[in-house]
Amino acid sequence: MREPRFDASLRARVARNLARREAAQLAEGGLKRAAVCLILTDDGAGGAALVLTLRAKHLSTHSGQFALPGGRVDAGESAMDAALREAREEIGLELAREAVLGRLDDYPTRSGYLITPIVAWAHGDAPMRANPEEVEVIYRVHLAELSQPGSPEFVAIPESDQPVIRYPLLGTLVHAPTAAVLYQFMEVAVHGRATRVAHLEQPVWAWR
Fold first, then answer.
1. CATH classification at residue 51
2. Could you tell me where the beta strands, DSSP code E, fall in 27-163?
3. How many Cα atoms within 13 Å fall on the side-chain side of residue 40?
4. What is the pTM of this model?
5. Which helix (H) or strand (E) holds 38?
6. Residue 109: inside a domain
7. Contact, 79 vs 116, CB < 8 A?
């Protein structure tokens, strides 16, 4: 895939692709509500990138894992407001509601959460700083990296009838739920395809 430019044309295409398809909203079924923020921004050289974080190693859950800014949806809070709040708390990024381009399908996790992914646009000069209480490093992942041949990978496991999805990124493997959300973003928001991902598995070590 050619490196997409971070420009008005990309913003319009992503917003249009998200608007033309109704995102799947799943019943909670005992799961806790959560939201993540997929932040489209400049890679520093005019290309388009998504923001990914490395979670702080001292956290009690999912420490040292790659993730999108996100967390629990508080009582009385919408998924959109939660995603924007988490972006502010984790990476110091202030985003107005007008920055939101749309949403992707809800994704149920093996650890008991129902994640709503919110897609937002951040100007290239928007300041970001890692909150050391939650985030160790902030990365900007080029969109082209998410469409490399053979990426993402789908791996069969004996514990499930569905494949585990994982992305070779940043010198390691990024697993679902983050990998599933990234994949659907590329399929739906960038390429305009009607791809669902709720069935895609997480690795067995994440089933808790």
1. 3.90.79.10
2. 32-42, 48-55, 66-67, 70-72, 100-103, 107-108, 113-121, 135-142, 153-155
3. 31
4. 0.94
5. strand 32-42
6. yes
7. yes
